[in-house]
């Protein structure tokens, strides 16, 4: 499973680069940056010119699609039907059983995050005996349906009373990262999943598809920011959101997100990320994202014991 055909890997990257497929499925630009942190268990094949790719990692005898990514699941370069997806997944399961794997977990992409819609993929997997391990909730704003709460409008009024500048500049990464790191450690006792080195590595790989927007005071002090991925042509995802205490008092996150959603074009979407993940119910975060127009979008995490 760890040795993928070099020619097919090249075809895969060409397909992702020339289509509107999610950039996180690119091994060259995203998944490989993890290095040796995850043991690769991906499956890549070609049948009559149609590529099928299942990004996955393994720990012991358990496989996850993908431990190094917020979601995974199947990628097919040609036309697909439920019957075709079912056949591909049957082959994937058979290969993992032959390799002695005992459990397969798939973090399905939220709706609209890749070409195969999650509802179709989930239907196939349920019929193959997968069970729901958890159901997460994301918030996504649609450029064609900008509806905001009165609280968000009040926050914007407070932000506009200050002399803050919003800019898109990766040069502020270290300042923003320090705010992010302090916030996560003070509130949850954890550090960001990505190190500063990781983020700079990803920026080198992804270029304009990874960007940072910050709010800066008149003295050049960063008060808050948002790191975003351009996942697809019409989909931007906010990965990291953080503000200093002064930034929180001045509602800079509301101001930065306004800058983001006002720059959206028709049919573009802005993902605020997850709020309710498994049993971790951050209702205040969900409420804030809802106030900024983010509508709930579900994400299934499904699992199957392969030795049954």
CATH architecture of the largest domain: 3-Layer(aba) Sandwich
Structural class: alpha+beta
Work out the helicity level: 25-40%
Please state the average pLDDT score: 87
The arrangement of helices and strands along the chain is HEEEEEEHEHEHEHHEEEHHEEHE
Shape: elongated
CATH domain topology of the largest domain: Aminopeptidase
- State the fourth-level CATH superfamily of the largest domain: Gcn5-related N-acetyltransferase (GNAT)
Span between N and C termini? 22 Å
Tell me the β content.
25-35%
Please tally the helical runs, counting DSSP H or I stretches of 4 or more residues: 9
Q: If you compute it from the alpha carbons, what radius of gyration comes out, rounded to the nearest whole angstrom?
A: 20 Å
Q: Major β-sheet, in short? A: 12 strands, mixed
Low-confidence stretches: none
- Tally of extended strands? 15
Total number of domains: 2
CATH top level label of the largest domain: Alpha Beta
Q: Which descriptors would you attach to this protein?
A:
alpha+beta, 308 residues, single chain, 15 strands, Aminopeptidase, 30% strand, three-stranded antiparallel beta sheet, 2 domains
Please give a structural write-up:
The chain is of the alpha+beta class. It has two domains: 6-129, Aminopeptidase; 141-297, Gcn5-related N-acetyltransferase (GNAT) (Aminopeptidase, 3-Layer(aba) Sandwich), CATH 3.40.630. It is 33% helix and 30% strand. Strands 1, 4, 5, 7, 8, 9, 10, 11, 12, 13, 14 and 15 form a twelve-stranded mixed sheet that branches. Helix 2 packs across helix 3 (118-127) and helix 4 (150-160) packs across helix 8. It is elongated, with a radius of gyration of 20 Å.
């Amino acid at each position: 499973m760890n040795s993928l055909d070099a020619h097919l890997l090249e075809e895969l990257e060409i397909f992702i680069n020339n289509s509107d497929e999610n950039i996180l499925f690119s091994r060259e630009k995203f998944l490989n940056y993890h290095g040796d942190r995850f043991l690769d268990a991906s499956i890549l094949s070609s049948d009559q010119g149609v590529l099928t790719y299942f990004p996955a990692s393994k720990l012991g005898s358990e496989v996850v699609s993908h431990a190094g990514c917020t979601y995974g699941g199947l990628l097919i370069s040609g036309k697909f039907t439920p019957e075709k997806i079912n056949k591909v997944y049957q082959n994937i399961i058979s290969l993992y059983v032959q390799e002695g794997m005992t459990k397969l977990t798939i973090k399905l992409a939220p709706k609209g995050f890749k070409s195969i819609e999650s509802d179709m993929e989930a239907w196939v997997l349920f019929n193959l005996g997968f069970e729901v391990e958890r159901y997460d909730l994301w918030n996504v704003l649609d450029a064609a349906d900008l509806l905001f709460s009165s609280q968000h409008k009040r926050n914007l009024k407070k932000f506009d009373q200050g002399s803050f500048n919003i800019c898109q500049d990766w040069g502020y990464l270290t300042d923003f990262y320090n705010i992010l790191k302090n916030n996560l450690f003070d509130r949850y006792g954890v550090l960001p999943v990505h190190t500063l080195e990781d983020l700079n590595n990803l920026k080198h790989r992804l270029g304009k598809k990874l960007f940072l927007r910050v709010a800066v005071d008149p003295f050049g002090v960063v008060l808050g920011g948002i790191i975003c991925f351009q996942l697809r042509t019409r989909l931007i995802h906010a990965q990291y959101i953080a503000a200093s205490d002064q930034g929180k008092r001045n509602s800079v996150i509301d101001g930065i997100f306004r800058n983001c959603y006002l720059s959206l074009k028709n049919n573009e979407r802005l993902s605020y990320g997850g709020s309710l993940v498994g049993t971790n119910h951050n209702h205040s975060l969900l409420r804030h994202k809802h106030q900024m127009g983010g509508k709930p979008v579900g994400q299934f995490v499904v699992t199957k014991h392969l030795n049954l």
